[in-house]
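Can you make up a protein sequence with its backbone structure tokens?

===
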Amino acid sequence: MKKIILSTALLLIFSISAMGQFSIRPQVGLYFSSIDYESVQGSVKGKTGLHFGADLQIGSPFYVQPGLSITPLKLEIKNVGDISITKLNVPIMVGFKLIDQDIVEAFGVRIFAGPDFAFNVSEKISDVITDVTLDDLKKFHLSGVAGAGLHINIFFLDIGYKFGLTETISPKIGSGAKLNYFVANAGIIIGF
């Protein structure tokens, strides 16, 4: 699965690069996660955290934006303990520039949407949590993403919402839960 996603991303990059604008966008972001899961020990809740990564933006006014990011995710059962999951995210966004930075100098507005493929690279559960196990944590998580972005000179700000399409916690007995995020990313644009 990982090879298919990476091959698709590389194919998109090379096939669209001839269409025009190309930029690399290193970034850091803030996420607010939410999950609705009840364990015997209490409700599992999402926590706020930082993530970082980079993406490529290829094309104008329609564009493709494949990327990679690392998300150190924390979930908690209040007064019990934490669940820590580090995810490697591979988002592949498509979008449209409503106000193109090439036309209106030093300013741009755009919208985007697409899938985000996430793979767990590490997982840890507090010893005091007995109702959620490592086997209950799904290794692969698929989300849909929709959002908008703003460029001012070489700086950008993106805001969006990731809605879980697959379960993050999936116990053998009972129902599982999907993870959702509100995200805000800021970074710089390195254009070619």
The CA atoms of residues 122 and 129 lie 17 Å apart. Confidence is low (pLDDT under 50) at residues 15-19.
